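Help wanted!
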Amino acid sequence: MASADPAVDRTAYFDWLCRLGDNCLVLGHRVSEWCGHSPVLEEDIALANTALDLIGQTQFWLGLAGEVEGKGRTADALAYLRDAAQFRNVLLVERPNGDFGMTLMRQFLFDAWHIEMLRALQRSSDPRVAEIAAKAVKEVAYHLERSADLVIRLGDGTDESHARMQKALTSLWPYTGEMFMADAVDQAVVAAGIAPDPASLRAAWGQTGAEGMGAGTLSRPEGHFQHRGGKTGRHTEALGFILADMQFLQRAYPGGTW
Amino acid sequence: MSQVPDPEIPVISLTDLGIIRDVEWQDDTLVVTVTPTYSGCPATSVINLDIEAALRDQGIEKLRLERRLSPPWTTDWITPEGREKLRAYGIAPPVDGTAADGRLMGRGAPLTGDSNLTIACPRCGSAKTEKISQFGSTPCKASYRCTDCLEPFDYFKCI
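Answered by r_m:
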C-alpha cells in the first residue's frame, strides 16, 4: 500500500474525498429509508443491497479522507460528527425519496455519473483512490443495470407510471448539472492526476441518460437552470433532516457502540 | 483457514471463497491478509473475528489482520470445490469467467442486463431458469427461479 501523499493541497484533497464519500453516504442513507416500505419484497431487498454497497464505499472514501487530513478522524467520526455545512455531497443525492419512481430516477441519474467517475478514477495517480474505484465500479455496474432497467420499464409502462417517471425527471433535472461543475477543489485534484475533470464525464453520462430516456419514452426537460452548492457545503433543508436521523445516536450518546 | 466457514454460507470455507490473500510470519507475528467481498458486506467483521478465534484456538498468540483491496475480489477466485459445495447447498455457483468488470459485462443490452448467460438450476440441473431479481438475500446473490421444477433459488452473482 502506497503511503506517500500525492503532491496536492491537502485541504483540497480532503474536501474532494469528502465529496465522493458524502455522495455515497447521503444517497446510501436515503435509499435505506425504503427498507420495509418498498412496493414488493424483491425491490425492498434490492434497495437495501444498494444502500449497503454505498455505505461500504463510504467507509473506504471517508476512511481515506481521514487519513489524508491527518488529524486522526475516522470514517465514523466524519459521518456522524460533522454538521450540514461540512458535508460535500451534491444536492441531487439529498433530494427526498418521493415516490418509488422519484427514487429510481434519482438513482439512475446518479449511477450513470458514478460509473463514469469510478472508471476514470481507476487510472488515478493515487493508488489508494484507484483501488477503491476498482472495487466500487463492479458494484455500481449492478446499480446502474437495475436503475436503468426500472426507469425504462416504468417510463415505458402504464400512463400512470410514465407520468410519474416524467415528473421525477423534470423535478430532478436541475440538480444534475452540479456533478459536472468544477471549482478550485476539483482543479487541484485534476492537476495532480488524482481525478478526471468533472466536465469530461458529461458526454458519457449524457449518452447513458439519453439511451435510458429514449427506451423509457421520456423526454429531456427544457430549461438550463441548474442548482449548485452541495459541493461547497450549501445544502437544502433536506440534508438537515437526514443528519438529524442518522447522527442522533452519536449526538445523544457520544461514543456509543454495540 | 480452510476450517473456518463463511458466516453467511457456512458450507464453504474462507479459502473456498478466495478471500484469504496472504498468510505470512513477520518475526513472531502471523499476518493474515483478507480482501472484502462486497464493500458493504456485513459479514466482513464477523469473518475477521472468526479468523482470529480459529488461530487463537491453534495456539497462535500474536496475529494481525490486514485488509487488501487490490486486486479487488472476484467470484472467479471461488475454488472448484467451493463451487461444488455451493451447488450441493442449493446456490447456483457463479458462471466462470463472467465476473463484472465495471463495463456491464459486455452484455448484449448493457442497460437492462439482458444476456445469454445460462444459469443452471442447482436442484434439477435444468437450464430453463429466469431471473427474478439481480439483488438477492445477500449482496453477493441474485434471485432466480427454475421454470422446470419451479424451485426458486439463489445465484451467486458474478463480480
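OP: Thanks! One thing I noticed: Chain A has ten helices and no strands.
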